[in-house]
Amino acid sequence: MRISTNMQFDSGVASMNRQLSTLVHLQQQIASGRRILTPADDPVAAARVLEVQQAADVMAQFRVNHDNARSTLELEETQLDSASELLIRAKELAITASNGTLTFAQRQAAATELRARYNQLMGIANSADGTGQFMFAGYQSASPPFSRTIDDLITNGGDVNYAGDDGQRRLQVSATRYIEVADPGTGVFMGIDDGTGGSQSIFKTIADLVGAIEDPGNTGAAFSADVAAALGNINRGLDDVLRVRAAIGSRLNEIDSLSTTADDMAVQYEQALSTLRDLDYAKATSDLERTLAGLEAAQKSFAQTSQLSLFNYL
Predict the structure, then answer these.
(1) What is the domain partition of the chain in residue ranges?
(2) Which of 45, 225, 263, 314 has fewest C-beta within 10 Å?
(3) Which CATH superfamily is domain 67-271 in?
(4) How far apart are CA 101 and CA 96, in angstroms?
(5) What is the DSSP string of the chain?
(6) Do the Cβ atoms of 118 and 206 come closer than 8 Å?
(7) Per residue, what are the HEC states of 268-297?
């Protein structure tokens, strides 16, 4: 085959360009620490990297949800712990007020504190989480769920107004698990059996107790019966709060377990990604040196052959 000078020149340039392209690619790999810079470097591994990265991103979102769920539930648990202490104190005040040796004026001290406890409990029931959503409003979490003052209940009767619903807001914490991060106020503060097949709130219980204490004509057996009924209702209200707190504890334990699993999976995903895409620096350095040597040899060969001419032999 006849080799022209142009063919010889083009062949030499192409050889150097291939060597130079390989050299640049190796330098980019070493600079980035990645073996796969484009899918063309390893199509199979690149596809697998995409799958693993997507799974890792989903797990990362679950881990964020774990933190958010834990934070919300811990805040709810703190509020219900305060409610528990408040109801225990209400029981003590009811027992104190039932002491038959107290004068009517002395009974009023218990009523005054019970009024304060009512307002504190209303504040707890209308508390919001870190995002501004009212914890005990169900799905209607944009507005405070409970209203009506203790004086309104004592004077006009009835029960508190509840503007929420029975919904339980949830967060997805795994591929198959949604966990409740709030409890509706109906199940926490309004589940006391009223003796007629219905239910009443703990707020009405406290208001009825204060009304009985502050009624100067309410004495003797009638007063004792009112206090006994209030004590029974406070105990049932406290049971409701403790039941919800136990459920929260169970959810927090589940989140901790899921978080541990998610942390382990995150490590496994990172190891898999490292195996698929991270560069073997020793091999890359060796390849770089070999490519440099090849490029230098190609350059020298091109320089020598490009000077050849038939006239050199004439």
Answers:
(1) 5-51+279-313, 67-271
(2) 314
(3) f41 fragment of flagellin, N-terminal domain (1.20.1330.10)
(4) 10
(5) ----HHHHHHHHHHHHHHHHHHHHHHHHHHHHTBS-SSGGG-HHHHHHHHHHHHHHHHHHHHHHHHHHHHHHHHHHHHHHHHHHHHHHHHHHHHHHHT-TTS-HHHHHHHHHHHHHHHHHHHHHHT-B-TTS-BTTSTT-TTS--EE--HHHHHHH-S--EE---S---EEE-SSS-EEE----HHHHHS-EE-SSSSEE-HHHHHHHHHHHHH-TT--HHHHHHHHHHHHHHHHHHHHHHHHHHHHHHHHHHHHHHHHHHHHHHHHHHHHHHHHHHB--HHHHHHHHHHHHHHHHHHHHHHHHHTT--GGGG-
(6) yes
(7) HHHHHHHHHHECCHHHHHHHHHHHHHHHHH
In the chain, the amino acid numbered 295 is L
Tokens 């914890």 belong to 135
At 216, list the tokens. 């100067």
Rounded to whole angstroms, the Cα distance separating 75 from 62 reads 20
Which residue's structure tokens are 């350059």? 299
Token duo for residue 176: 């198959």
Which are the contacts of 88, defined by CB distance < 8 A and separation ≥ 6?
238
What digits encode the pLDDT tens for the residues 56-69?
999 999 999 999 99
Q: pTM of whole model > 0.85?
A: no
Cβ atoms of 137 and 169 within 8 Å: the answer is no
